[in-house]
Specification:
The protein has 15 helices and no strands. With 325 residues, the protein is mainly α. It has one domain. The two termini are 32 Å apart.
C-alpha cells in the first residue's frame, strides 16, 4: 500500500514539477542556471557538512561499547539517504537499508534495528525546532503572520504525532506486532523472531533512557538542517540575486518542512519547487528565479545521491556473490 502511494506521489510530483517549469518558462529558468555554469557544483560541497552532522547524531544512538566505526555509519547513512531521495520508498526504504548494511558488516541486528528506529524519531523531532526557527524568522521579517500561524499549528500537530510514536515505541512496539502476527503464524521459527523483537524493544527503551545522549543526537540533527542553509544562500548568490542569511534560513527551513510533510511524494518533486515559489515571493524573488534555486539545489542528487545509490547496488551485489548457494 505504501509503495503504491509512493508511485502515485512520484507521478503527481513530477507532473507538478514539469507544469511549474513550463508555466514559468523553460528558457528563462535554464538561462539562469546556465549563466552560473560549473560554479553550481559548489552547492553539494557546502551541503556536505550537514551529512557529517547527521552521522554524528546517529552515532549517539548506539550502546556506547558497540558503536560502529565512523566509516560504516557514514557509508550506510549516505546510501540510505540516496535510497530515500531517489526511489519511491516513502522515506522508509532507506532506513531499512541502513540497518541491513550494518548487519552485513557484522553488527548485531538488534543494535542496527533499534538505532535506526530511534534515528528516524530523532529526524522527526529535529523538524520541530527547525520549523520554529523558520516560522520565527517569518514573523521577524513581518512577511506573513497568517502563514506563520498555520505552520506553527502544523508543527504542534507534528509534535503530538511524534510524542505518540515515541510512547508506542517505549510500550514495546516490535514485540507487540510480533506477538499479534504469531497468533496467526505457527511456524517453528516465529518464536525466535518474537524474541528478537522483544530485544529490540528493550534496547529502544535503553536508548531513550540515555536522555543526555538522546538530546545531543537531536541537537546534531537540527544543526545539520541549519547547515543546509548555506546551500540556498550560495545558490542565490551564484544565480545573481544575493539574499541575506536570515532570508536564506527562513526559505530553507519552511521549504524543508513543507517537503517533509509531503513525504509520500518521493524527494518532494513539485512540492519543493512549489514551496520555493510561494516562499520566495514573500522575499521578493520571481517565480522563475525561485524555481532555478530549487533545481540548482537538486544538482546534489546527481553529485551525491546517485553515486550513493550505485554504491549500494555494488555492496548488495558483492554480498549476494559471496552468499553460499
Amino acid at each position: 500500500m505504501i509503495r503504491i502511494a509512493s508511485y502515485i506521489g512520484l507521478l503527481v510530483g513530477l507532473l507538478v514539477l514539469v507544469w511549474l517549469i513550463v508555466w514559468q518558462g523553460i528558457d528563462e529558468i535554464f538561462e539562469l542556471l546556465s549563466q552560473s555554469g560549473f560554479s553550481l557544483l559548489l552547492l553539494p560541497i557546502v551541503w556536505f557538512p550537514s551529512l557529517i552532522a547527521a552521522v554524528i547524531s546517529w552515532h549517539y544512538l548506539f550502546p556506547i561499547k558497540r558503536i560502529p566505526v565512523f566509516k560504516q555509519l557514514f557509508l550506510s547513512l549516505w546510501m540510505g539517504r540516496a535510497i530515500n531521495t531517489l526511489l519511491p520508498v516513502a522515506s522508509i526504504g532507506g532506513e531499512i537499508a541502513k540497518a541491513r548494511l550494518l548487519i552485513l558488516w557484522g553488527h548485531p541486528g538488534v543494535d542496527a534495528s533499534a538505532s535506526v528506529l530511534v534515528d528516524k524519531t530523532v529526524q522527526a523531532l529535529a523538524l520541530v525546532p527547525w520549523a520554529i526557527i523558520g516560522t520565527s524568522l517569518l514573523v521577524y521579517l513581518a512577511i506573513d503572520n497568517e502563514l506563520a500561524k498555520l505552520i506553527m499549528l502544523g508543527t504542534f500537530l507534528l509534535g503530538l504525532g511524534i510524542v505518540g510514536f515515541v510512547l508506542v515505541q517505549r510500550a514495546g512496539m516490535f514485540g507487540f506486532i510480533a506477538r499479534i502476527i504469531g497468533k496467526f503464524n505457527t511456524s517453528d521459527g516465529w518464536g525466535k523472531i518474537t524474541n528478537n523483537a522483544n530485544d529490540v524493544d528493550i534496547l529502544v527503551k535503553e536508548i531513550y533512557s540515555e536522555k543526555q545522549r538522546f538530546i545531543i543526537s537531536i541537537f546534531w540533527r537540527t544543526l545539520g538542517l541549519i547547515l543546509q542553509t548555506s546551500e540556498v544562500w550560495l545558490a542565490c548568490y551564484l544565480l545573481g540575486h544575493p539574499i541575506g542569511i536570515i532570508e536564506a534560513l527562513m526559505l530553507k527551513s519552511l521549504t524543508s518542512i513543507i517537503t517533509d510533510i509531503a513525504f509520500v511524494i518521493p524527494n518532494g518533486y513539485g512540492v519543493q519547487e512549489g514551496g520555493y515559489v510561494m516562499l520566495g515571493a514573500l522575499i521578493g524573488l520571481s517565480p522563475e528565479f525561485s524555481l532555478a534555486i530549487s533545481l540548482a539545489t537538486r544538482i546534489r542528487e546527481l553529485i551525491v545521491d546517485l553515486p550513493g545509490l550505485l554504491y549500494w547496488q555494488h555492496v548488495e551485489a558483492k554480498y549476494l556473490l559471496k552468499k553460499p548457494g
